[in-house]
Amino acid sequence: MTARTDSLTHRTAPIDLAPDEFRALGRQLVDSIADWLTTMPKGRVTSAESVADIRRVLDSHRTLPESGEPAAAVLADAATLLFEHSLFNGHPRFFGYVTSSPAPIGALGDLLAGAINQNMGPFTLSPLATEIEAQTVRWIAELIGYPAGGDGLLVSGGNMANVVCFLAARAAKATWDVRTLGLTNQPRLRAYASTETHTWLQKAADMAGLGTDAIGWIPVDGRQRMNVAALEAQIDRDVARGELPFLVVGTAGSVSTGAVDPLPELAAICRARNLWFHVDGAYGGFAAQAPGAPESLRALSLADSVAVDPHKWLYSPLEAGCSLVRRPDDLTRAFSYHPPYYHFGGEDIINFVERGPQNSRGFRALKVWLGLRQVGRAGAIGMIADDMRLSRHLDALARAHDEFEALSQELSIATFRYVPPSLKSGVGSPDVEPRLDEINREVLTRLEQGGDAFLSNAVVDGKFALRACIVNFRTSLEDIEGLPPLIARIGREVAKSTVP
Question: Which residues constitute the domain of residue 54?
Fold first, then answer.
């Protein structure tokens, strides 16, 4: 036996860890994370460093080292870098986007899923994990009141969850074999959504070959909800031109304000016209059964498909989106192929590779499944209801504050803006409105860079607004009540330097 083959007989790979070393490193890392979870809520929401600062800390221009480093040193360095140079969406005063505080059990679930490393494409490669994902999908459907007997799968997030449903709608409603023949020399497919719909729809129309001009953008009312009469009029015009309407998208919680479209009316239009009714519930869908949620949300049970995001309002770590469809064959009709190199047969077997665009799929479902088992239905709905109550309280504080103008409150999103007393009498005038936009842009910039709290922005009725979104089980009444004084202080500083 040569030295070369002998080394393969007793192979030691540099990326492996001996069991004792793995245990020691795992304990150290978990201890570091636990310590950070204790101190993180008391610190800054973000390091607010520049790109140059981050690249310098990382030494981002260095080349790949020829030799490796000890695993202990690599892990410790990575933890320190992340703990000291990140924005923390798990911080109780992070209100910036619809990204929730991640559940600790979900983080542990990711560790377990990564160690087992199931490929969630075919059942053969992931037998128990496949059944866990199927059960998780059923539990999600139950949680939001979606009818039993449908189908679904876990995907990367809201964009992909919606895209999967869009492609299912295209396959179901095209009057020809669109997957084989494509779109050439066929009637133009048309989809409809409100002007408040997330940009996933442009991506879906682009990826599906329809082009973004295939989207009929429907105006909204004063509460940012789709105008139903305008929708019907647009459909009639398109049919008269020989086009083929196939899809209406209802939004269940818009990104800007949390607006919920009139879902019952949209469902009725789709039934009457044989259109696919899809609900983008990536943000708001999980609130459908929660007390205090808009009644219209319950009508997502009437949809042909629904997209929801566990990494938004189920507090799962990224990534975790979910596509739900009413009929079991809606997904296989859109995605299934049977090449000769697949041998994944068997009765009553789920092969998720046939239900979505991915072949190799990670075990995203585990962290969602663990979280749902830990809190149950009542716990999940209770946390969502608490987030909405905190948002309504923030809206009330803004309305009671002399220097704020409250603009909207839906689900767990409140929008408002700072208005200096000297400009209050001019609100709405063409001279004052641009100045208020400028002031609030600067307030937001200083707020985000200060690290005491993190908000984002929205444009509501043409006004630049500060936007606070609460999808955070760590946020308390104290965090909410501390926000208006903080923003007012920054607003006064900005106004002093910008208002004559």
Answer: 17-86
